[in-house]
């Protein structure tokens, strides 16, 4: 991997939840897992009408260096890039611990 292509700073986040005194689950402040350099690949977009609401779905693949932290990321995590949130759909290891690909999507409701 040419590290010169890693020109975007992304934050890998883990959603957090807790339970109140009644046992109800609620979302709390997400946890920052790592801040890493990444390359943006395979950007595509499509439109759809979901529950009577027009939406645009952007699929993006992020390439990052493989490390013990990035190898532990699962689809329950998400990525923040600037003010945008990308849900992780799949994680792929490429090569022998050379790089990790995060296949993500960003849904924009209009």
CATH topology: Thrombin, subunit H
Largest sheet: 6 strands, antiparallel, barrel
Helix content range of the residues, please? under 10%
Residue fraction in strands = over 45%
What is the N-to-C succession of helices and strands? EEEHEEE
CATH architecture classification: Beta Barrel
In one word, what is the shape?
A: globular
Q: Total helix count?
A: 1
Unreliable spans: none
Question: Ends: how far apart?
Answer: 37 Å
How many individual β-strands? 6
Overall average residue pLDDT? 85
* CATH class categorisation: Mainly Beta
Alpha carbon gyration radius = 16 Å
User: For this structure, what is the CATH homologous superfamily?
Assistant: Bacteriophage SPP1 head-tail adaptor protein
Question: How does this structure look, described?
Answer:
The chain contains 1 helix and 6 strands; from the N terminus they run βββαβββ. It has about 110 residues and is mostly beta strands. It has a single domain (about 5-110), classed as Thrombin, subunit H (Beta Barrel). It has a 6-stranded antiparallel beta barrel. It starts with 7 loop residues before the first strand and ends with a strand. The model has no long low-confidence stretch (mean pLDDT about 85).
Question: What is the topology?
Answer:
Blueprint: E1 8-19, E2 25-50, E3 53-65, H1 68-71, E4 78-81, E5 84-94, E6 99-109
Antiparallel strand pairs: 1-2, 1-4, 2-3, 3-6, 4-5, 5-6
List keywords for this structure.
110 residues, mainly beta, Thrombin, subunit H, six-stranded antiparallel beta barrel, 1 helix
Can you summarize this structure?
The chain is built from one helix and six strands; from the N terminus they run βββαβββ.
